[in-house]
Write a structure and sequence with these properties.
The chain has 307 residues and is mainly beta. 7% of the residues lie in helices and 26% in strands. It contains three helices and 15 strands. The strands form four sheets. Strands 3, 4, 6, 7, 11 and 12 form a six-stranded mixed beta sheet that branches. The chain has a four-stranded antiparallel beta sheet with strand order 2-1-5-10. A three-stranded antiparallel beta sheet has the order 13-15-14, with no helix packed on it. 47% of the residues are buried. Bound molecules: 2-acetamido-2-deoxy-beta-D-glucopyranose and copper (II) ion. Residues 67, 160, 189, 191 line the site of 2-acetamido-2-deoxy-beta-D-glucopyranose (NAG).
Length: 307
Amino acid sequence: MFLSTLFAAVLGAASVSAHATFQDLWVNGVDEVGTCVRTPASNSPVTSVTTPDLACNVGGTTAAASTCTVPAGGTVTVEMHQQPGDRSCSTEAIGGNHDGPVIVYMAKVDNAATAVGSSANWFKIAQTGLVSTDYWATDVLNANCGKMDVKIPADIAPGNYLLRAEVIALHVAGSVGGAQFYMSCFQINVTGGGSASPPTVKLPGAYSATDPGILFNLYGSYTSYTIPGPPVYAGGAGPAPTSAPGSTTTAAPPPVTTTTAAPPATSTVAGTVTQYGQCGGIGWTGATACVSGFTCTKLNDYYSQCI
Ligand SMILES: *[C@@H]1O[C@H](CO)[C@@H](O)[C@H](O)[C@H]1NC(C)=O
Ligand SMILES: [Cu+2]
């Protein structure tokens, strides 16, 4: 009796160690301080790929305080931490062995404040999985104070969207039902843009418990990892193609995640990337100059940040 009461109290406090939630959103380097996140009920993971909670987490049907305005083609930064409101950079964003991919989706909705994630139509705008040997997207989060930059496709239609950021922790994913899904939905209003309407999937629906990226032995021998869900929508990689009169088709620009630009040289020119923000690395297509007082510093081939 005592033990079960204590256990319930611990769960109620939502403070299970090493677990985490996406809590904050930055828009083009401006901190929106969690105003547009639908805060999950706790930092515990969702473990079923068929529950409606897979869309926006337990508690993720309750509206956020507000909806953030985001220009199409802009960069948002999703930010994860272990404990609610604790944005300290000295604590890992998601605890030690919770290795896995970071995946970001969007869904066009009529009203971001009232939209139900499990009924929405989702397209993937970014994903990072196994970056290099034993170095996962979650390690990138941990190296960047929980932050990861994501480019909003430039060509999507303006209006309200849900933006869903997700970590899939794989430390016990070697048996069915072991993978841990940590996601939050943010309410955004996209301005500008074009008329693109990317193909979509349902969540739940897009994942199976036996997908190779969900039923996965983290402690086995592997050199690659297959991120679950649909391919990344490629249209956002650059400005919408313009067609000259008489031209027929224009090739789509390459997706953000497969470009292989070299990391930029260290720069001292004042720019737009704020402290701890990403400013370079293989595949990086965003801004490369740090705000005054910070220097773009290479951490590894895949990550340079302003410190
Ligand atoms: C979204 O932005 C457009 C353009 O600024 C504005 O007209 C509209 O009212 C905004 N909608 C919401 C829900 O914020
Ligand atoms: Cu866990």
